[in-house]
Amino acid sequence: MNYLDHLPILVVAIPILMSALMIMLRSRPTFQKILNIIVSASILLMSIILLLQVWNSGIQVYEVGEWGKYGIVLVADLLGSGMVVLSCGISLLALIYSLDYIEDKSLNTTYFSLFNLLMAGLNGTFLTGDIFNMFVFFEVLLLSSCGLVVASEYGGVTKVSDKMEATFKYLMLNIISSMVMLIAIACLYATVGTLNMADMSVKIAAMSDAGTLPWHIYFIALLFIIVFGNKAAIFPLHYWLPDVHPTAPSPISAMLSGVMIKVGAYGILRVYFLVFKDALFLLQPIIILLALITIAIGAIAAVGQKDVKRLLAYSSVSQIGYVFLGIGMGTAYALAASLVYLVNHAIAKSMLFLTSGGIIHHAGTRDMDKMGGMVKSAPLMSSMFLIGAMSIAGLPPLGGFIAKFVLFDAAILGEYYLPVLIGFAFAVFTIFYMFRAWLLMFWGEARDVEKYGPYSSHGLSPMITVPIVVLAVAVLTLGVYSEPLIALSSEIANQLLDPQPYINAVLGGEVR
Asked: Does the record's keyword annotation contain Cytoplasm (predicted)?
């Protein structure tokens, strides 16, 4: 038996097993930490091998259990396996950061279990070939992330009541989203008689070709905008994000902004370009409109923030709008640009949230008006925040510059002149609020010690600084050597626009 054939299930099942094991190992905290790092690194390695397998040998299909050919199927194509690599990489760094950032009481009881469930939910979402299982993995993500948001960090400045309020809002809005998704799935199943997305694609295409496509298919497709839009926090479904991301511990903020909101973008790419490709002519203008409003609202709101994590949260709202703008344009180049943007934002924003944790630890506050002059007392945090800010702002030579350049280039080539003009205008806003934040925190005179107290003299451990530096190196690398990411994104875009190989692999290919 070749274990490499089982990689699609291993990257989902191992975190689930680890979640249960962590409950039993609560009395052995040191062993918990070592085991989690080893296993998370192993899962990252497996995800990279899976991506290489898909790149070299084509789409991998894995049948789970004995419930028939279309029972529970995991499908690893370039999009799914690429997202798993991104998710596992950021998860590993966030986990290392957590070891010295999360209070022992939280870390040794529920944190590791919930974190592993979060990883399982992410990997399962990216690999499932079944839309009901996508719903199940969404629920795993929701419940695990709710528990992680209320985890306590050392020297935390966020009140427990604020965490609970944000979590309640997050939970309620996502429960409504889940109900909408269930209704949409039930309507789809009643229409096409299957939950397998490849099978759905074939049956809906056949109805479209025969001219018998029922009108409510378009309505169901619109319902999925609510579902995935809520996950991605696009307008008008973004209200939960600016409360949840700042109140969560910084490694969880990094996971939420770096990976979790990308689940919504992934859902749109997977479901719309596979299942509802005949309805794209109706959906794409809606996505572009929502993307532009999201870009504007996030950027405008970010300008007025004094709370560094709240600024980063509103920035995430604005930046996910750029990802959706590329999806809405829908050409191969625009989709590739959207994916390049997605990856660069995931890495840079994760780094900024992890850096913000170090800044808050040093200053003892999230209020940027109560900081100043930290370039002298926290030079590493100053450099890291500047790199992340420059990348999000789209300045060379960082990954964010390449992301914005290819996205605007795709928009111009596709003759989307007004969207690119709006996107460019609010990119200027991004430069303003990111550099304003850096100047408030790091430049000028040090803060009034009598009024706000001295900065912490306690240094940051390697477990906190190393993940930030690794992400900074990734941001720089994607800026000066972006060709591999662009090539991978272009190939993924081609697969999205021609889903027949995916359909053939699931319905007609060899199923393990």
From this structure: no
Q: What pLDDT score does 510 carry?
A: 47
Q: Output the CA–CA distances (angstroms, integers) from residue 386 to 185, 375, 434, 497, in the order listed.
A: 44, 11, 9, 37
Q: Across-strand partners of 153? A: 102
CB 279 within 8 A of CB 221: yes
Alpha helix segments (H runs only) across 99-196 = 104-106, 112-127, 131-149, 160-192
Residues 6+ away with beta carbon under 8 Å from 206: none
Give residue 96's domain range: 3-508
Count CB atoms within 10 A of the CB of residue 57: 8
Q: Which of 2-11, 70-79, 108-117, 503-512 has the highest mean pLDDT?
A: 108-117
Side chain identity, residue 126: F
Alpha-carbon span 59 to 75, nearest angstrom: 7
The interaxial angle of helices 308-329 and 216-232, nearest 10 deg, is 150
- How many domains is the chain partitioned into structurally? 1
- Of 21, 233, 49, 47, whose CA–CA distance to 123 is shortest? 47
Give the DSSP H/E element, type plus range, for residue 475: helix 462-480
Across the chain, mean pLDDT equals: 91
Exposure letters 358-368 (e unless 16+ CB within 10 A, then b): bbbbbbbbbbb
- For residue 265, give the nearest of 238, 236, 291, 232 by alpha carbon: 232
**Which two structure tokens, joined as six digits, stand for 262?**
């990308």
DSSP state of 278: G
3-state helix, strand, coil in the chain (%, to 5): 80, 5, 20
> CA of 416: how far to CAs of 21, 35, 378, 419, 466, in Å?
52, 50, 43, 6, 41
The residue among 452, 90, 125, 63 whose CA lies nearest residue 252 is 90
pLDDT score of 511:
43
Q: Are the C-beta atoms of residues 273 and 280 closer than 8 Å to each other?
A: yes
pLDDT digits (tens, 9 = 90+) for 372-418: 889 988 999 999 999 999 999 999 999 999 999 999 999 999 999 99
Question: What's residue 512's pLDDT?
Answer: 42
Assign 460 to helix, strand or coil.
coil
Render pLDDT for 306-346 as a digit per residue (tens, 0 to 9): 999 999 999 999 999 999 999 999 999 999 999 999 999 99
Q: Is 75 helix (H, G, I), strand (E, B) or coil?
A: strand
Lookup: tokens for 242: 């600016």
Place of tokens 């985890």: 151
Using a cut of 0.90, tell me whether the model's pTM lies above it. yes
Kindly give the residue spans of alpha helices, DSSP state H, lying in 211-240.
216-232
Strand, helix or coil for residue 196: strand
Give CA 348 to chain center in angstroms. 12
Beta carbons within 10 angstroms of residue 334's beta carbon: 23
Per the listing, tokens 């009140």 go with 159
Structure tokens at 320: 């996910």
Tell whether the model's pLDDT for residue 217 goes beyond 50: yes
The answer to whether the beta carbons of residues 487 and 109 sit under 8 Å apart is no
Nearest in space to 479 (alpha carbons), one of 382, 378, 400 = 400
